[in-house]
Design brief:
This protein is 22% helix and 35% strand. The chain is of the alpha+beta class. The strands form two sheets. A five-stranded antiparallel beta sheet has the order 1-2-3-6-7. Strands 4-5 form a two-stranded antiparallel ribbon. A hairpin with a 6-residue loop joins strand 2 and strand 3. The longest helix has 16 residues. The protein starts with 25 loop residues before the first helix and ends with a helix.
């Protein structure tokens, strides 16, 4: 595994749309492992591939319950509203209140499952996934 260079606010890659992963190969698995290592080194709890300069739809999260590696997360439906305080590794030292849906259904390929399916996650895990989809993937 390797530490990847983080991209920060103002970097044009953070505003570009990510591409769908069409094949789970060694390059994707290495990218996900590198992203986890980079996230841990920077005391983060979530990281999307564009934040390390790669325009792929992959996310890693770990809120202390073990790492989760997600491929092609897609919001199927959402409802309600909740306001939470969020931070972002691409905007170091800053946090802010963000309005998010209170309930969503997300479809992902979870790497540890090697199959496409809906995965049940905690609300905090969901907020991290939603943050990555909303702010990084530009669907």
């Amino acid at each position: 595994m390797a530490i990847r260079q983080l991209r920060y606010v103002g970097d044009p890659i953070l505003r570009k749309k990510s591409r769908e992963v069409t094949e789970i190969n060694d390059r994707i698995k290495i990218l996900l492992d590198d992203m986890l290592e980079t996230m841990y080194k920077n005391d983060g709890v979530g990281l999307a591939a564009p934040q390390v300069g790669i325009l792929k739809r992959v996310v890693v999260i770990d809120i202390g319950e073990g790492p989760i590696k997600l491929i092609n997360p897609e919001i199927i439906s959402m409802e309600g509203e909740v306001i939470d305080v969020e931070g972002c590794l691409s905007v170091p030292g800053e946090t802010g209140e963000v309005k998010r849906p209170s309930k969503v259904k997300v479809f992902v390929i979870a790497l540890f499952l090697y199959s496409a399916k809906s995965v049940q996650v905690t609300m905090r895990q969901f907020l991290l996934i939603y943050h990555a989809i909303d702010q990084r993937f530009r669907f």
